[in-house]
Amino acid sequence: MLAEIKGINEECGVFGIWGHEKAAELTYYGLHSMQHRGQEGAGIVVSKDKELTGYKQLGLVNDVFKQVKFDDLNGKIALGHVRYATQGGKGLENVQPLLFQSLTSGMALAHNGNLMNATALREELEKEGSIFQTTSDTEVLAHLMKRSGEVTEATISEALNRVKGAYAYLILEDDTLYAALDPAGIRPLSIGRIGEAYVVASETCAFDQIGATFEREVLPGELIKINQDGLTSFRFAPRGKRQMCAMEYVYLSRPDSDLNYVNVHASRKRMGKELAKEAPVDADLVIGVPDSSISAAIGYAEESKLPYEMGIIKNRYVGRTFIQPSQELRELGVKMKLSPVRGIVEGKRVIMIDDSIVRGTTSRRIVIMLKDAGAKEVHVRIASPAITDPCYYGIDMSTKEELIGANNSIEEIGEIIGADSIAYLSEEGLENAIVKDKTINQGVCMACMTGLYPVAPADEKEMDISNC
Amino acid sequence: MLAEIKGINEECGVFGIWGHEKAAELTYYGLHSMQHRGQEGAGIVVSKDKELTGYKQLGLVNDVFKQVKFDDLNGKIALGHVRYATQGGKGLENVQPLLFQSLTSGMALAHNGNLMNATALREELEKEGSIFQTTSDTEVLAHLMKRSGEVTEATISEALNRVKGAYAYLILEDDTLYAALDPAGIRPLSIGRIGEAYVVASETCAFDQIGATFEREVLPGELIKINQDGLTSFRFAPRGKRQMCAMEYVYLSRPDSDLNYVNVHASRKRMGKELAKEAPVDADLVIGVPDSSISAAIGYAEESKLPYEMGIIKNRYVGRTFIQPSQELRELGVKMKLSPVRGIVEGKRVIMIDDSIVRGTTSRRIVIMLKDAGAKEVHVRIASPAITDPCYYGIDMSTKEELIGANNSIEEIGEIIGADSIAYLSEEGLENAIVKDKTINQGVCMACMTGLYPVAPADEKEMDISNC
Amino acid sequence: MLAEIKGINEECGVFGIWGHEKAAELTYYGLHSMQHRGQEGAGIVVSKDKELTGYKQLGLVNDVFKQVKFDDLNGKIALGHVRYATQGGKGLENVQPLLFQSLTSGMALAHNGNLMNATALREELEKEGSIFQTTSDTEVLAHLMKRSGEVTEATISEALNRVKGAYAYLILEDDTLYAALDPAGIRPLSIGRIGEAYVVASETCAFDQIGATFEREVLPGELIKINQDGLTSFRFAPRGKRQMCAMEYVYLSRPDSDLNYVNVHASRKRMGKELAKEAPVDADLVIGVPDSSISAAIGYAEESKLPYEMGIIKNRYVGRTFIQPSQELRELGVKMKLSPVRGIVEGKRVIMIDDSIVRGTTSRRIVIMLKDAGAKEVHVRIASPAITDPCYYGIDMSTKEELIGANNSIEEIGEIIGADSIAYLSEEGLENAIVKDKTINQGVCMACMTGLYPVAPADEKEMDISNC
Amino acid sequence: MLAEIKGINEECGVFGIWGHEKAAELTYYGLHSMQHRGQEGAGIVVSKDKELTGYKQLGLVNDVFKQVKFDDLNGKIALGHVRYATQGGKGLENVQPLLFQSLTSGMALAHNGNLMNATALREELEKEGSIFQTTSDTEVLAHLMKRSGEVTEATISEALNRVKGAYAYLILEDDTLYAALDPAGIRPLSIGRIGEAYVVASETCAFDQIGATFEREVLPGELIKINQDGLTSFRFAPRGKRQMCAMEYVYLSRPDSDLNYVNVHASRKRMGKELAKEAPVDADLVIGVPDSSISAAIGYAEESKLPYEMGIIKNRYVGRTFIQPSQELRELGVKMKLSPVRGIVEGKRVIMIDDSIVRGTTSRRIVIMLKDAGAKEVHVRIASPAITDPCYYGIDMSTKEELIGANNSIEEIGEIIGADSIAYLSEEGLENAIVKDKTINQGVCMACMTGLYPVAPADEKEMDISNC
After folding, report:
1. Domain limits at A59?
2. Which helix (H) or strand (E) holds D266?
3. Quick one: which residues bind [4Fe-4S] cluster (chains A, B, C, D) (predicted)?
4. How many domains in chain A?
5. What's the whole-model pTM score?
6. Do residues D152 and D183 both lie within one domain?
7. Which of B394, C395, D127, D385 has minimal CB crowding within 10 Å?
């Protein structure tokens, strides 16, 4: 779904709760609010009397759990996951949480991110006799933790020190919930409270959804342990400068989430304002590509004193069962998900705000659509710098060959997509829009726009993009 | 779904196409774009070699047609319908188009509106031996047309002259498509072209969806006939002043549709601007209740020079299979469809724009939600006048007893919903926002706000609100 | 399903119950036991406080009602139907009971049989302004009854006197249940009791299924009325000699049903015994084609003192979702529903009992299958006379052109299907096997074997085979 | 389903094919024919270019594969499994084939049987760091094989020598298919050919289903390897006397299968004949409890010269979606799966043949049902000896406490179930009915009737009944 529009795909959202009577149900609602982070599969594991049971399935959260009785998933501790599957790993076996049963204990894992050295580690483990049932890099961590003995903060720390990449991990062992964030803090992971219970989630919108309150961020290199003694913090790696993924702000997260203490909608609006300052244009109105570019478009309109209008509309009822129009019908003019609003754009000079451009095909389609609907001029303004490099930290972008920003000058891009003018936000502009307070927000990972990787790949194998 | 949020429900959308190879498929996409007009059921009837066949089912358009092969619905003429079912008429038999098979011909009917004298007519027909398979008032028209003999423009006109109310009818007889609009033009109905083919639809968004171009409105009291001789216009009633339903602009239609030559989003933005002029307030920001109030909120913000912000977010994945949170969970704070954005509203004086208030329960819930999320003040501004009277023309509002606007002063309403201040748009403000050109737009039906009915009910029986 | 094997299809089963708390549920189980009579659709209508509501759908009884809450179908009176749809009438609108709602009363109809003059009657009704929503001949009777005024025993009798053919009708009007059987009693219809409640059903297996006891047969030309005054009998036509359809015994009914006081299994066993007397053959063992020929095969074995063996097995799990093997796979040897048992037939001289032959294609396939499995000889014995003529009374057989028995001598048939020898049961043999007591059983309709029609078609139009 | 009637449940069927273009489709049909061996889940793994991919799901074969495109499962080698799940192991993760992916190869396992020392082995493996994703004993073998290095005939043999119990294993490693049978040959496993391809299956009915021909049995203690060099036989254990499970003949297998060269229907018929000799009774007719007792009933009738009749009928349409009658309705007389045929049994002295009695509750229900239907006397004859002991080899019987045969004398059993007389077949009778040729059939495992276990449990833990 997202792939069609953008070519960028978030890979997974995690949710954990410790100590609530309605643990599984709250996990359902929490996952539901993070549905945008992964639409291929979902699962919940609960722990009751140290016994772990779970249910997972391919599909949207609603569909996965529509016939599940939450009474069958009782227990006060739960772990949940929504998954976006990259190619090669679409099977149900890869849907998380992964659940492992031993005669003496149960363990479940949920992961958002990407391990760069997963293949090397797996080779080593397989040589020693480990057998794998998934192609997920998450299973590697499970083996590493078990190999080093019982699962404790020590063995988890040891295992985490062997993996490299970007990750937010939730681990449920018997009745203890662990949460860990990579040393550069690239992926988001926040802690909240609901009554006496603890909640951990990829995005704070999950807290708002269930009525929980935000407590604090998990810190880079921190391992959190939650059990009957409350929450304890361990450090498995020196605390590095936090470099949260910029694309989480630009495109991936929900506008109502706060990531590392910064509201996503507000940061997007600032991106739009910065863009209006950096790249003004004489035009009649400002429109945004729904949904992710609306905030930036409003910001651009406010700053430029131009009216913000609803020039493109998104069909809310396009879902799994929508019959995609055939090529023939599309050529006849049948629209997919987005439609232009002729009554708004006809005869007008339009500034079209988009959050980013990946391959350029969608942007081109939208520009043509607007011109077909009578727009006199279409000025494209992108609320982030050009994407020029691949991501090794869990975002499924296109390969470098396909990235329009990696292979063309800005002028060429404008020509390719048919814009009357085009401009991108600068790197400084993006960073300023995100970072409110240097002591807290420190920095952002903009590797896909700058090629500067917080965690550099050591060799070709580590550049191989695997899945969450 | 809509009912939960608002208590107002559009009743049905119609779509017809004559002379296109892909008639059924285009009807599918056309209905899809009008899904918001009716979510209880959908159907398509096609005519091939004068033989009519169809498929209909309860559910959303996507679900209804997900396993239908359009090759089984071939024919160049098609009729479609999306239905909102009021109580008492939820059965599949009431889903439209209604299809009647005689030994010599086939006839199908699709209807948006409400016949006020349906019960009286039905009594008469039943006495004469007519038997009915539905509880829909649409079946009454079928009997009337057949009773007067063969179905022609004459018999249709005769039948239409016996019914009273608001209606947009599409009738497919063998290979002729008829379209008729009530003498006051209360319901919307537009004509478009796609290549050589004709299209008729409740909203123009259906034309944009399939790449058709708008041609003109069907006029009040006009009967359109489309067959191999092209389009012919008949008049079955004197052309009255057009009084299109104001609620279509305020709430019901899609923002990208043009109704009677006026774009809906633009009219909503004007409502917001008028409201800002009429009822300004000193505050920090403006927010709208998604989705229908966003345009008015942007208009208000533009006029008042206050920032427009995304202070409430709507969960896009709430659908049929969503498990509604139990009362217990809602009390714990689990949200349904709308969530406040704490990062935006916390500590702020908020102007909350809503398009209308029916019973007030939803407004009250949203105000509380915003205050819980930290809003310092919540000033409610409604982009239309108070709803005080029932609708007899096909909009399913609550009864007079339940209408908060019928039973309370504005101040009382503000208190009930917990707003720090409240104001409604004036009747003149609304009319000005809709009517661009008096020669074209003439007037609007605001009966539910003024009690002035363009087609007055003759007795109690005609006030009985039936379904489309 | 049946069609594949045989080419004969029963058309519909009816079930009614008056005066039981669990009316809808018992109807469900009753219909379930008559599933073999119609697998295309099913429906139940209940009456409560004279208000009729119902549910029907395409599919098997189980699937139709799997998500229906019987609490939503409460009422002490219920009417049910299982339907086999012939070509041209597969739509949901044709699934029964047909339900008609007038302002003053509700009426539902369920029908098993065929009206020969339905087209002529419909022409007349349509001329008078009646409009039809189905292509079912059942709707004709509804119009006839309503035309003659209120629905009473008088108007029903009058309507029945206008229709011609074979029929078992159940009619539910407000809170009265009527049952009517055609003057020749061609179709089966029995009355039972469960506690104080009355039950009427096409087959007595429905009584056994729900724990009801058989009371008596509905008589030819009889109209039964059941309401708060109990059961009253009327006669709408002179009582003719009962001529129950022979194919009900031979093939269509369940072996545990008693039709007109004769058990079906027992009659089939007698057919087998008669056949053994008429057409003995020197062989090693006797096998039957499952399921309907098993009883006759056992009878043949008993009479001939040859062992009865399970030489052909039927796969019990072949259902709606079974993926039919492609032509390519069938040629490779993949079996459909029936498989030969090599361990039984290899090297043996086999007598294969079948109940009837329609087109001969299935018989031929089975003979080849047995020979491929090593049978040395295959002697085909058919437990009924050759089918030579079409049925106008509601059994969907092939047309005369396709009937192998209408176009070939017995020897030719044997050659076509590859049998080493072949013989049919004589007409007398069949009649003797069915008729136990002349005063009760009187006669059987063997029109499809003899061309002697109890109700003769008047013209070509009446020979047109319509559906139940 | 079966559980309701009997309380005995087969645990799983396996199917493998090597070297056929349509490998996955033929596996589907093969599994379909063995559906009776396991109805809880099914799966297929295919190998193409040494890459293994698969699909599995809970449910019947038809339902599991109804939306699978076999084109997505292409490859000339396939492995399939149908599963019956005992309590505690109902999750999808336990559905087989289990699939393991390493960086260098893929391996899949399918298993029918039970490992008695699975828990002990698992404890050992977990101590060494193995992690398990299922609770199935099959996963233990996978770890054992992988631990000993690469998967070859040597490592498989080594692993098989560590497990104890009854098993038929199919192992697919890259492009090699292995088949192994336990040293006592308790579970069935046969080899067939279809064209050039090899097939291995639990029952020969799978060969007939797909048009394959039986080649030979896998021998006790034999390991078969099939790859591009053809079929090679290895011996991993000395060849013991084959002691095939008697219950496979009595109840579990399909009548058309040949197990160890003996046809199941024929053996059952001999059981009936032996029983007639051992326990004759003066009566009017013989009936069998469908489906598994029909063959024995026919044998009893033949031997006793009494008529065989269809006195109990089984509803063929009872399936997953059947709504089970409530206790209240059952007490009213609503039948479940089996109905008595009043027309047959009324006033008669009936010999009722059943294949076995487990808890006695079903037998009791049937006897009552027959008496309610008017049977004058019901003489129960069981075509196997009383079940007195649990099975450790993969048949899910009740515990010893629940076995009526373990806790009551034959007379007591007769009284409990309400029979007028009762008799069981003797052990010798059963053995004689099965064993045709001592050199081939050698012996049968009758441990559940005699307590004499071919592979004796060493301790309490090994008596713990786990699942296949």
Report:
1. 13-240
2. helix D264-278
3. 245, 391, 445, 448
4. 2
5. 0.87
6. yes
7. D127
